[in-house]
Amino acid sequence: MNMVQIEQIFPSLTWRIRHEAMYPELPFDMVKLPDDFDGIHFGLYLDHKLTGVVSLFHDGDVYQFRKLAILSDTQNAGYGSQLMDYIIDFCKIQKATKLWCNARVNAKEFYFKFGFHETDKTFFKDGYDFVVMEKEL
After folding, report:
1. Where would I find the N-acetyltransferase domain in this sequence (predicted)?
2. Which of 38, 40, 33 shows the shortest CA–CA distance to 126?
3. Is the separation of the CB atoms in 64 and 57 below 8 Å?
4. Which residues of 67-79 are buried (b: 16+ CB within 10 A; e: fewer)?
5. pLDDT for 20
6. To 5 degrees, how large is the angle CA 136–CA 63–CA 33?
7. Is the pLDDT confidence value at 47 over 90?
8. Residue 65: beta bridge partners?
9. What letter would DSSP give residue 117?
10. Rg of the Cα atoms in the chain
11. Is 19:32 a contact under the CB 8 Å cutoff?
């Protein structure tokens, strides 16, 4: 049985996971967000190894999560779902009213499982189609 632990982490710890899992073909610095040091970042440790990350940003009581990433060799094992459950609970504790994200269109089914719905806002960036998805809390 694998041991999973989720904890708040320093922003720079997210960069390697983001790069490896989301944009390995792009320059490393591309995964750094200008507002990373204004966010709240969580890491999922699998047997003490940082394996997944997600970053939260808020404007009042509306929260956005960005760069949910799980290393490819551990994807489809439920770790992304554990991170999603964690940040949804975190947002509820913070009295958030809404949680939203820019979801890759090819991953939107994942977010439906957590009660997110699609908006009519779509865009194309870095070679991917995105749709804004949100969930009322």
Report:
1. 1-137
2. 33
3. yes
4. bbbbbeebeeeeb
5. 97
6. 145
7. yes
8. 56
9. E
10. 14
11. no
Q: Give the tens place of pLDDT for each residue, 14-28.
A: 999 999 999 999 999
Residues with Cβ within 8 Å of 37's Cβ and at least 6 positions away in sequence, in order, are: 11
Query: Which pLDDT belongs to residue 1?
Result: 78
Name which of 87, 67, 63 is nearest 6 in CA terms: 87
Q: Tens digit of pLDDT for each residue in 54-86?
A: 999 999 999 999 999 999 999 999 999 999 999
DSSP SS3 for 101: strand
Pairing between β-strand 4-9 and β-strand 49-59 as defined by DSSP bridges: unpaired
Q: Which residues pair with 136 in a beta bridge?
A: 98
Query: Which pLDDT band holds residue 112 (cuts at 50, 70, 90)?
Result: very high
Q: How far apart are CA 51 and CA 21, in angstroms?
A: 10
Task: Give the separation between CA 55 and CA 70, rounded to whole angstroms.
Answer: 13
Residue carrying the six token digits 């991917």: 128
Tokens of 108: 């939107």
Q: What gap in Å lies between CA 102 and CA 113, rounded to an integer? A: 16
